[in-house]
Amino acid sequence: MHFLLIGTYHHVHVRQDNSVQAEMDGLETIMRDVIRDQAPDAIIEEMSEVAMKLRNGTSTIPGELAREFNLRHAMVDPTPAQRDEAGIETEQAIEIEAFQRSLPRQVVAERIAEANRRRERYWLDRIAALEAERILFVCGAAHVNAFGDLARGVGHSVEVVNPDWPPGVY
Known about the structure:
By secondary structure, the chain is of the alpha/beta class. It contains 8 helices and 7 strands. The strands form 2 sheets. The chain has a 5-stranded parallel beta sheet, sandwiched between helices. Strands 2-4 form a two-stranded antiparallel ribbon. The chain is globular. 30% of the residues are buried.
């Protein structure tokens, strides 16, 4: 597989309000350029239907563009039930336990990093099951490098199109 990665923020790629319309328009432009120039056969995103609804989202930019260009689309982030089944802790749960038990920051950081590794592996497994060759993957900017390293480590090629959209804002 060949991955084309775009890092962003959930409030930018989920249609939920117009407070970041300029950033959403910018992401859409970047994605349209990639679709035109790189011809992916699937658009995948770090999102789930459950998470989108929790954000009061109505759709996502990746989903809209996949429909418009007749490309396969998938949301690969685990739902809360799938996280429980896979043993993937949320950062919030780790932080709450850390507060309640006065866990050292280093322990908290290690647990969050492990949870992120499990989550990124979950995404990669779900993406591999789709049997797509060229994948435009939109994920959180904080995951671009780690996910890229994970994908490369199992033999996939990775191109980081934009590691952090919008730049310098957050």
